[in-house]
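Posting this for the archive.
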Amino acid sequence: MKNFTSLISPIACVCALAMFGVGCGGQVEESLKTETTTPATVGILTFETKDPATGIVRGTYEYQGHSITFEAIRGEKNPDLSKLMYGHSPEYAVDARLCSEKGFCFSQGAGGHAIADSTWIQETTENPTEEEAVIYNAVANMFHKDIGRFISGNEDEGLIDEFMKLQSISDMTLPDIPELQTPPQRQSNGTPCKGVLAINQSTPYRHVFEIWWGLAVRIAEHSSTRSLSISSTGVIINKMDTANHGSSPGDPGMNRSCGRVFPNRPIALPVTKDCTRSPTFGVAHTSAEINCCQSAYGIKSGTHVCNDDSRLQREIMIANANVANPSYCSDWSPQGWAPSCT
């Protein structure tokens, strides 16, 4: 495996990773220092499939000897409501994922309120080590930069929604939530070590849940959610974004509304379970499916909207368990505003 310390600096803090022999004042390769300040330095972006007709994008990205695979698949057209959003308004609901060299899919994004292909949830049952997670986070963050550069020169390829989805899910930056942080610690020489995350060995993983919102013209708000599984030393292991038939967390025009931390959790995120497809606008789920609003997506009585999806995803994260079709998914009036995190 390539020298581990060469991939540390893109991650928020190296102090919390002292178990791997990397200290707050650790040395990194000069090439990586240059990369953090020189936009011209890029990894190797290889497309295996790039088809505007079907909306399928697949390929690999390599950086400093490590690689990840990426995939985006176009789904149904988003409802016309999404076109009233400020900022980026995707025409299609696109599912996307990033997977490690060992097949662990560490970042996924649903165009609707759930991944349409249930086989995407995980390709391997082997959980990554923290060292492996730090590496694929670093590679993903570089891919995030490089796919942004690629988009700026290829906006006319007919795959803008697919490229934008890949860019949004590849941002593996730790969220700025106070519950995740401790006061700055100090090195032996007294110098403050910035951004050290709380270390609690009795808590194997923490789940972080965020609700993002964007203002819709003359209508109300669109909301989408982001869920993270984070180790006790502050390494992102797994990430799941749900666009809820509109813009995703991190898209232009979307703002972080709130965040919440759940301690003592397993590595898997409950929000990825069981709701295996996003229904066509105006068509309901089957009654056998859980963890999703089973009513049709729409704005009339008996249907649900994006904010109902966000509310249900919040309840799933709170319960860390399956949640059956709640009444607010089919009540008399659509919810016009993003829900809170509590």
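The radius of gyration is 20 Å. The CA atoms of residues 84 and 217 lie 5 Å apart.
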